[in-house]
């Protein structure tokens, strides 16, 4: 047995030698920051071997170990160290290869390319890092595509809004010049038309402001319990004259005891936008069905079903994009313009062209933003707006959280 005092001396000498060698290794690594990973691994392993050898020599000198035993110990440590360095070199080469692969993935991600991690090409942290880079590149690709679509939609919206603004402004200018030159046969009619055009411009500005509040997250809601059936009834009654002017009838059905939590003004705008959209596309003599239903999961829905012939399947996912148009047509139908709905702040769509349905075109007071605004308001209420084709037309559903009375 080794005496406790001798054991403490051996440990102290070994620790001192290890600290000295490790300090030298740290200095070398700091000086060789730009060295390859293989060189740094060899320095670390070499430092461990040298620390062990130094400790053995120092302990042998202190304990008066025989020269024969010291030579044997040094040979054993030396051979083990050489083998360890060889293994460290192989390990370093493998790690360097994995690091280069991760570096290549990182560069490709930085260049905007979509990368994919190679299954089984390494393990541990480096493999996990490569997988994370691959996932990140896919997310960045999706984000770039979404940003491109958003930018394209923004450019289209600016172009379309500019066109929509020029139309009433040109009319106002022409009527103003006619009044100034005394060429207006009926000044009162011109004044009424100018008032309608001003209301239409005001409605466009209101829609743009509403959409900007939705997108910026600054839409302020006054939440309170609302009777859904009464909310729909008010919207139906308000738009009944517009429907009659288009020879379209409105029918309402559903339970009267559904209660939702929301902002009455904003939800009325959602229902109104969908009703105007339906009226715009329904042919004369048809009926628009408006129904309230209880949905699973403490939800309630308002469904608006029209007879406008449906929407092309390829366009179903785009009808809620701000300012999206199914065609280049810009002029609102005369029949709808004559209804005096200017200034309502609501938006509908253009009339069918050549028998094909075209969504989200403006009516007076609108700017092709009605469906986008409806979706934004519904989502601000933790709800959603859905659309699907039904026989003879299409159906829009506004799904909202329902207030369930506690027993």
Quick rundown:
The chain is of the alpha+beta class.
Topology of this protein?
Elements: H1 4-31, H2 37-63, H3 67-110, H4 124-180, H5 187-216, E1 224-227, H6 228-245, E2 249-253, E3 259-262, H7 264-281, E4 287-295, E5 299-305, H8 334-337, H9 370-380, E6 384-390, E7 393-401
Parallel strand pairs: 2-4
Antiparallel strand pairs: 1-3, 4-5, 5-7, 6-7
Helix pairs in contact: 1-2, 2-3, 3-4, 4-5, 5-9, 6-7, 7-9
Catalytic activity: ATP + protein L-histidine = ADP + protein N-phospho-L-histidine
Biased composition (Basic and acidic residues): 347-360
Domain Histidine kinase: 160-404
Explain what you see.
- With 407 residues, this protein is an alpha+beta fold.
- The protein has 2 domains: 4-111; 147-401, Heat Shock Protein 90 (2-Layer Sandwich).
- Helices cover 58% and strands 11% of the residues.
- The protein contains 9 helices and 7 strands; from the N terminus they run H-H-H-H-H-E-H-E-E-H-E-E-H-H-E-E.
- It has helices spanning 4-31, 37-63, 67-110, 124-180, 187-216, 228-245, 264-281, 334-337, 370-380, and strands spanning 224-227, 249-253, 259-262, 287-295, 299-305, 384-390, 393-401.
- Strands 2-4-5-7-6 form a 5-stranded mixed beta sheet, covered by helices on one side.
- Helix 1 packs antiparallel against helix 2 and helix 7 runs antiparallel to helix 9.
- The longest helix has 57 residues, at 124-180.
- The radius of gyration is 38 Å and the shape is elongated.
Rg, nearest Å: 38 Å
Proportion of residues in extended strands: 5-15%
- What percentage of residues falls in helices of 4 or more residues? 55-70%
How would you sum up the global shape? elongated
Query: What is the CA-CA span between the terminal residues?
Result: 81 Å
Parts with pLDDT < 50 across at least 5 consecutive residues: 327-366
Give the helix/strand class: alpha+beta
Oligomeric description of these chains: single chain
